[in-house]
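Operator note (shift B, R.M.): manual run for Fur-regulated basic protein FbpA requested after the automated queue skipped it. Running by hand, logging everything below so the morning shift can see what happened. Input copied straight from the record, untouched. If output looks odd, do not overwrite the archive copy; leave it for review.
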Amino acid sequence: MKILLRKAGQEKRQFLIDELLKFGIYKKNNKHLYEWNLCELEKEYHYIVTNDLAEKRKNNLVMG
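Run finished. Output pasted below as returned.
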């Protein structure tokens, strides 16, 4: 059971890192994404999605 939970956590962490990389986020406060814990990754992802920053960034990249 512990192995399954650990694997699920690792997969979620990797998903969040991949999504943040797509948004152009590689590091923050001199800390690379791979150094962040799951909670930090979730908070950053949630902040970007709820504030629609991902769409705005995507539009800026396309237009500019």
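Quick read of the result: The helical segments are 2-22, 38-50, 53-63. The mean pLDDT is 86.
Leaving this for review. - R.M.
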